[in-house]
Every structure is written in C-alpha cells, then in structure tokens.
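Worked Example 4.2. Read the sequence first, then its structure tokens.
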Amino acid sequence: MKIRVAALVFGLAGGAGLFAAGGGRADDIPFFATRDVPDYRASMVIRETWGEVKTFTRTVLHHRGWTKVEEVKTPVTTVAYGNYFDNPFLLWIAKSEDDEDFATAIVEKASPQEARDTGVVRIAAGEVCRWWELIEKAAVKDQLHPPWRTCVSRDGIEIATSQPFGEMTAMDGTNLVRLERGPVAESDVRPPKRIFEPAFWLKPRRDYPERPADRVDFDVRMKTADGQTYIRLLRHYPWRLEDRRGPDGAVQFKVWNELEDQGMAVSTIDDLHRFEARRSPRASSYPYTAFDKTFERVDMKLPASSHRGEKCTWFDLKPDILRPAVKNVIRAECVTPDGIPLKLIGRDSSGAIETFAAVEAKRRSVDFGEMIPPRELIDPSLWGFTVGD
C-alpha cells in the first residue's frame, strides 16, 4: 500500500493539496507476503540520504493484519493505519511537535505493488530475513519505478526496507532496532474516533471579524447545460460549502473556512476515493500544503454579464502568477457585488472544461449546522475502519 506525494484536485470544488510524505519508506504500512503473521511490536530507524544523512524513529504495531505505524521526523509526527490484505484504504494523520493534536488526516485507496522474492538472505538485528522487491507501475504506461526492497523474516515480519536512487549509489530505508513478538490489543491498531468527527476539524478557532459586504450568506444551486451534474453552494461566513453530484453517482464534497487553514473534503470519482481533513497547525514549520490554497481574486476584465436578472463580474479564483488571467482558467466565477456566484467555469477531474449556471440563488441566513458533512460520506465504516476512543 502506498500514499504517493501528489496533490488531489477536487474538480470544481477547488484544489485541496494535502500531502503524505513517504520519506524513505517502501510503504506507509509494512509489506506482508502472507496472512499468517504473528502480533508484534517493532522499533526501527529510518534513514534518509537526500543531502545530509538523517535518521528518524519508526514504531510498528501489528494485530491480525491491522497495523499502526508511527514515525517521528522532527518537526512532524505521522501515524498510518491500515490492513495490507483486507482493507483497500489507508489512513494517514500528522501533527507538528508544537501541536496538542493532529492537524492533518488523509484516507485514500491504497494500491498494492507487485512483489517478487529475490531469494537473497540477510541478518538484521539478529533476525534472518529474505529480500523482496516491490514494483509499482508509474503513471506513464508500461514504465516502472525503481523497485523498493523489503526484508521479511521467516514468520512474515518486515525487518528492513531500502529504496534505490539513480545508479543505486544512495539508499533510503529502514532497519530494525528491537522486535517483540506477542499479543497486541486490537484497540492499539484502531484510529481515534475524532478523526472522522466534524466537531474536531471544524471547531471555530477564534472569533471572526464582521462579515464584509461582498461575503453575504447564500444558498445557490447550479447545474450544467445538459442538467446531468449539480452543485450546491452555501456560505455561512467565513465557511463555504460545495457539494457536487454527478450522473454516475460520483460525489465531490468540501467545506472549508475562508480565514483559516481548516476544512473537510470527500471525493468518490471513478477509482479515486479520498477523505481529507485539516486544522490550522500551531507550528509555522508544518510542511504540508494548506487545505484550500486561496489566491487573490483577479478581475478577468470581461464584459459585464447577467443571469437571473442580476449583474455579475467574472473573477479568476485560481490565478497562476506565471500566466495572465483568463487563459487556461482552472476555476472562474461570475459573482454579484455582494458575493453570490451565478455562473461557474472550471475543469473537472479529467481536465475537461465544465460550465454551470445557477437555477436557484437565495440570500438567506445559513446556519453553521448546514455546513456539516453528511454522515454517509464520513462514517469510518464506509472507509473500512473501526475506530477506537
């Protein structure tokens, strides 16, 4: 299983760029060649050789196929939960050393690699193990990434890993420090319940200033010209919500705070199933991209437009400093002077341009409770997890 370093684009719901750092790891959870692996606790050291050589700590707990992996790479601690065989999803959470609790959570489909037993044997920390090669298909058809290597003990425990670079002149990887075979409680490999609770991620961080004149609360419903795809937009300042539903049942849901690095998002498009949540971290050194990268709105200098009897102005909401506005638009909205979107142009998950127009637009007081994600989108059981306390 693997979470690659890659940004997720929630189509018209805007870019959400949370990253999982694989470091020198072949997997975010251990490779298992067989299901018959005993419960164990392992302490390991992570070695990274980019630039100066750095070492970090890694702790692995395993119970009946489920694992919890904690890595401390100052200033960030990450924890990954998953089941190599029976659960297609992997949960990855992270916090900075200055945070009292987790600031990032990602759940996404995991992709097992092709595995090959090399037959090569080594001894690590007193344990005999055999090297396996894990091969992952690249995004380019028929192109392969350099193989990761994992060394597995006689009873199936991952003892060491390595990742070659270039001509294999440098190796990242992990090595065993201590291994304890013995019972591990089920509760020790279950993610905390709060990770799937909106109250944890969406709790207001402070008192917010008065609402600006161009940030009126609204309830807008849009659809494409063919009527096949719908989007609902809500604002409860400073919160925004977008809920997109496609004809094939695909969902892109996102709620975020316009003034904080804070929000939740779910995407279930084709093979992409992903849950993402973020709270503003305390530490400025926290390295992961903001939940919703907000750019200054750029007036596209287009002729005035109108819809449903109201005038609106076109703004590029995701401008690139390397290109002028209007060209290669990622997302643009035609908004009224008080901030209600009446038309929307953007790219879907495939890169195709889509145009939406409001079929209903209301200025009304929106309750914060309306911004909470539907339970059916964030129930941990739907993502393959049983949670702990």
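Now turn to a second chain, presented in exactly the same format:
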Amino acid sequence: MSQASENTGQGTGAVADVRLPEAGRDRSPLTTGRRTTFLGTLFRNELLTTFRRWRTLALLAVLAAVPVLIGIAVKIETDGDPTRGPGGGDGGGGPAFISQITNNGLFLVFTALAATLPFFLPMAIGVIAGDAIAGEAGSGTLRYLLVAPAGRTRLLLTKYATVMAFCLVATLIVAVSALTVGAILFPLGDLTTISGTRISFADGLGRALLIALVVAASLIGVAALGLFISTLTSSGIAAMATTVGLLITIQILDQIPQLHTIQPYFFSHYWLSFADLMRDPVYWDDLQKNLGLQALYAAVFGSAAWARFTTKDITA
C-alpha cells in the first residue's frame, strides 16, 4: 500500500513537473508566431486594399501620364531635330534637364521627376496618407481593425509602411514611364553630366535609379505629416484636403525671398537637390541635408501621430 502510494505520488509529481514547463515553452513561440503571421497578413492586406482602390489607380495613371505629355510636347516643339532645344532653341525654359531630352531620352527621366516632385508626387502622397486613418474611421472599420491583436502602434506602423510603399511605387512609375517614352521618341546613349563630363548609358541608368530612390525618400516627411493629420479627424476628405493645402502653402512660402531664414527648414526646400547626382563628382551636401530633414520630419510627426492615435477615443 505504501509502495503504491509512493509510486502514485512520484507519478503525480512527474506529471506536474513535465506538463507545466512544456506548456510554458510552447505558449511563447506560438504567440510570437501568430503575431508575426498576423503582421505580415495585415501589411499584405493593407497593400492590396490600397493599390486596388480606383483613387489610387487614378493617381498612378496621372503620374504615368506626365512623362508622356512632356515627351510628346518636346518632340512636337523640336520637330525631331536634336539641335533645337525646347523654348525656341535656347534650352532655357521648362524643368531641369529639359533642354537635353532631344539629345538623350534618358534625360526625360530626370525632367519628369523634377516636374512631378514639387506638386504631383506630394499631392498623391498627401491623399493616400491623409486617408490612412481618417478614412478607416469615417467608414466605421477602424475599431474592427483594433479588435485584432495588432494593437494601435502596430496598426499605425503598418499604415505608414503602406504609404511609404506607395511613395516608392509612384516614383518608380514616373521613372519607368519616362524611360519608356524617352526610348521611343528620342535617341539613347552616353550622356553629358551637369559638370560637362561624359558617362556611359549604363552609368546614367544607374544614376537615374538612384535619383528615383532619393526622390521617394524625399517624400517620407510628407507621408508622416499626412499620417499625423489623418489621426486628428474622422473625415478622410478633410484630412486629404488639409494635407494637400499644407503642401501648397509650404511651396508658396518657400518661394518668398523674405523668408530665406526659415526656408531651409521647410520639408520641400531641398527636394530638387537630386540634380546634384548628375554632377561629376557628386555634390552630397544638399542631398544629405534633404535626407536629414526628411528624417527629422518623419520622427517629429511620426511621434505626434503615435501619441495622438494611441490616446484617441475610437468610436467608429
């Protein structure tokens, strides 16, 4: 009897000793795996939802059409003569690099990015970022997203990552559209940098890709600003209009000479510094200032968006 009781006690103790650690060991990896899977699914679904909307497709179509219009206009004005520059042959009019398009179609990439960066690209980013949170709140789907185990911080990061993905896609669409049109309408080959040196077409293509990436990175400040505004209201239209309105206001203020003291702190002030990548050697000063300023705006308005969103009373 005592031996049976002793064996029973040992058995009970053994079961207790084994099961509790196993349960503890299994729970943490399972929870972590579920969270990782959920975050991947959330980001993927957010990307698909954003890029399937007719509004998004319309914005991308407009951006793709800008290089087409520029290329056709230059082709008609020069009448196919590479010795004639736009604007009466002096090459002094239009966006940067436009006088070189007839000599090399690759310059249409630089011209299209210079033409779309001041307004079209940031406007598109403002629309997507402004609608990120406010649009969900206005449609009544925000609180359902927060029921899932993502949490407000992860949801906000997912929204911002989606906006940044749109920045990259939109910029690449402009570049690819410009390169395609440039190859069809104008000759391609070695090109002359702003410094007057000759570089190969492959080198020029690599610089075009680098310029596109810099332009996309130049929009991270606008993305953070739009996301912050999106957390302040439950109306997607109001958030988009406010973001675009601020973009236009900043652009106007950046052109007033009397404000030269504060203009270097505007997020748009160094946007066109990407042209320095077409120098030989490359001038990095303004490029570094631009990227540093965008990082500062992203940190400030990203933190403000997080502080607002994590304390906001979600009723819709």
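Notes for the reader: The first helix runs from residue 2 to 52. The radius of gyration is 27 Å.
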